[in-house]
From TrEMBL:
Gene3D superfamilies per the UniProt record, alphabetical: Winged helix-like DNA-binding domain superfamily/Winged helix DNA-binding domain
Protein name listed in UniProt: Transcriptional regulator
Source organism of the structure: Haloarcula mannanilytica
Length: 119
């Protein structure tokens, strides 16, 4: 229940980031790097009823991933890039279904939640 309250009280951009991470998690693609989260979000901009924020910029995604990790909604795991550099990868602390359930009632995200559930 605590996580549900945290997810619902997050701002719209943070919720969108959480949905993208939930989608990547349901596809077994976590821990996810900021690039993949950004690309996933951009691919689903049309699935959002109204965009309560501007576009999706990678720097903003990086900052939001870090903030959500600090708040305990995401786990940050160091992973290695193909070139051997350490990069942070993120995954949900809780279950993807919990995030989807928490945001299924948010009108602007309902189509995206349904897209994730049906895949």
């Amino acid at each position: 229940m605590y996580m549900r309250d945290q997810v619902q009280s997050a701002d719209a951009f943070e919720q969108f980031v959480l949905l993208a991470v939930a989608e990547l998690e349901t596809a077994d693609e976590t821990p996810a790097h900021s690039y993949h989260v950004t690309q996933t979000m951009k691919a689903h901009l049309a699935d959002i009823e109204r965009q309560p924020f501007g576009g999706v910029e990678r720097q903003e995604v990086i900052a939001t991933l870090g903030r959500l990790a600090d708040e305990g909604l995401l786990a940050n795991e160091q992973t290695e890039s193909p070139t051997g550099k350490g990069r942070p990868g993120y995954e949900l602390v809780g279950d993807a279904d919990d995030v989807l359930e928490a945001l299924s009632e948010a009108e602007e995200f309902e189509p995206y939640v349904e897209t994730i559930r049906s895949s």
